[in-house]
Amino acid sequence: MTDYDVLRVFCGPRGDHGNELGVVRDGTDIPDREDRQALAAKLGFSETVFVDDPERGVIDIYTPTLRLPFAGHPCVGVAWLLDVPELVTPAGVVGTRLDGEFTWIEARPEWAPSRTLKTYASPAVVNALPVPAPGEWIYAWAWEDVAAGRVRARGFPGRGDGITEDEATGAAALLLTAELGRALNITQGRGSQILTAPQPAGLIEVGGRVRLA
C-alpha cells in the first residue's frame, strides 16, 4: 500500500471537525492517472492529492470518481503540509501563505468546479435539510449574521460515490464569496470553519486551520 498522510482541513476553533484529505507525498510512486484514480476510490476521501514536486508545489487532485483541475480544501491542506509559496495545479498557479493558525490560498472563482448555490431563510432550515438524491452539486447556505458576514452552509456533492455530504468545501466557499462580493466566515458541516476574502484582480483568498489526523 502506498504511504499517505491524512489531514483535517478547515477545522473549527478548537481544532475539531474539518474535512479529511488524503495526501500521497511522493506522487512519482503512482505516475499513472488510472492508478491514482483507483487509489482515490479505495481511500474514499472526498479528495486525495498526489504531490508530484514538493519543492515547486506541483499537485494532482482526485475525488473517488474523477480528476479535478482545482479544489479548495486539498490546496489549503497541501499548502500547510508543504509550506511553499505557491501550488501548481492544472487550473493555474495558486498562491499560498501561512498566517498564525490559518493557512490561506489565493485562487480564481472560474477555476472552481461547478456548484449550485441555494439560499435558505435561516440556519435552522439549512440544518434540517435531508441529503438530496444524487444529481447536481448543491451548496446550501443561509445568513447567520449579515453584518458580520457569518454564514451557515452544508455541501451535498450528489455524485453517487459514497460522499453524501462534504464536511468543508473551499471551492464552494470561493464561489459564494464571488457571488456576494464580500468576506465571509462560514460554518459548514458539523462545525468546520472557512474564512474568505475578495482580493484585487478577481482573486479570492480562502483560509482555514489544518491538523494532521
Automatic annotation (TrEMBL):
GO terms for molecular function: catalytic activity. InterPro entries: Phenazine_PhzF-like. Gene3D superfamilies: Diaminopimelate Epimerase, Chain A, domain 1. SUPFAM superfamilies: Diaminopimelate epimerase-like. It holds the Pfam family PhzC-PhzF. This is PhzF family phenazine biosynthesis protein. It comes from Streptomyces antnestii.
